[in-house]
Records
---
Amino acid sequence: MAAPTPLVIDCDPGIDDAVGLALALASPEVDLLAVTTVAGNAPLELTTANALRLLRAFGREDIPVAAGADRALVRIAVHNLQPPHGQNGLGGVDLPVGTRPAAKDHAVELLARVLSEAAPRSVTIAAIGPLTNIALLLALHPELAERIDRLVIMGGSTTRGNITPVAEFNIWTDPEAAQRVLAGSGLDVCLVGLDVTRRATLDEPDLATLRTASTRGGLLADMIDGYGDHGPAGWPLHDALAIAAVVDPTLIETRGATIEVDTGVGVARGQTVCFFEPPKGKGVILGIPAPDVAPALRPRAQVAVEVDAARFRELLLARIG
Ligand code: BDR
Ligand code: CA
């Protein structure tokens, strides 16, 4: 078997973040080196406490956790929706507090430390919350970008949004950070957005299976049960699909694209506009992206366009149950 992929998860737990963490910890294909937190689904203090609680619940308090940005880079995002993750961010499930504190340094410094100790192009970062920490990392430590192999992001949509008609929550929460990362980082970026994550669901019978499988499965089932993001096919586990795509990249199909994020303050704020490369020999790209980014800094972006939802569900239940 190939050596496990060194992985850092930047997150805002969050129920689907919790499922993503559980999946990473149960997957021999990845080696989770650190967890960093950002404000998003809940204020920073809570997302950090939740990350610590989750690592305790999963028996992995040896993994360092550091808190990062407590707000977006430029504009504070405000909405008036019921938080879909519940008031405590974990669907009302009351996990014991972590016995280890978060690291004293900022998330960006923990990320920088992990990267500086790593070989070139060796670390995968899975960003499953707003991209504030990642944008700060790239701004403060541009020399460490070459240590990152891939940046797998849960965020965006090429069609419908979930916080506005066109914007997805993680990108909408900090569009300026997202533009810095998606249009100006020069990294290998994989965007796992709502087009595919909406199809990555578990349903009631799956929760029943999880409950009988193990204590951990039961905890996660209770959290998912308290998740306000629920459609006819069940609960979409957005972040868990992004982590699954690190564990097994064949679960998704991607297309190369150039991405621009709408950072205006109009109705399209937070929209991820994807300029897809035409399939070989077919057609041309219509229009061109805004010319304010040097070509070398344009990420080599892949956007997920298809998912094998059945295989995702199987993998998830087998690993986290
Ligand atoms: C994303 O927003 C958050 O609510 C979820 O944790 C996920 O990262 C889905 O739009
Ligand atoms: Ca999240």
---
Amino acid sequence: MTADEMKKQAAYAALEHIDTDGVVGVGTGSTVNHFIDALATIKGKIEGAVSSSIVSTKRLEDHGIKVFDLNEVSKVAVYVDGADESDDNLHLIKGGGGALTREKIIAAAADKFVCIADASKLVGVLGKFPLPVEVVPMSRSYVAREIVKMGGQPVYRENFITDNSNVIIDVHGWDITEAIKLEKELNNIVGVVTNGLFAMRPADVLLLGSEEGTKTVYAK
Ligand code: 5RP
């Protein structure tokens, strides 16, 4: 079974968590692309979606799913998104696709966050995947110097602009055992818009596609 087949399996399993008649929060990435295709099979039963990126909005609309602005909706019952890494607290690293800020906003607004991934994404310690940090462009060098003081190795993501017209610094070299503390410290650096640690608002459930079928993981 390929990683993509595992992603697809987890994505279709997420349909069981969708409340019909409501607005579904939709993340970004290759796993979420499968979820959008799955959502299209029940599109007559949902009101529509709120989307975390321009690319997901286009895929949703191509399927004929109505996309609302988050400000137009009073409730997002469920948010479904992928991750680059998860630990067993369901603290996540996200932002490999650069959509972390809008993803974090919808995750915060949602009642329930269902994370979908292939089995390789569950790790013992977060940080092997470089941690994305979205920054206002003029603050890039300053933020990078502050991250070096914190022991990280910042790498500017070349030729990439976010949907919010900002840039990304990917931070290598951290073993992240205190994710909530690090998430807050990074947020406190002036110029940082968002960082890719989803620990203050972790996933509520993790669906992992695997050879043995979809595994459902709750925070330990
Ligand atoms: C995008 C993300 C994605 O959820 C993350 O990068 C996982 O992507 P994929 O589903 O392609 O493995 O955070 O900003």
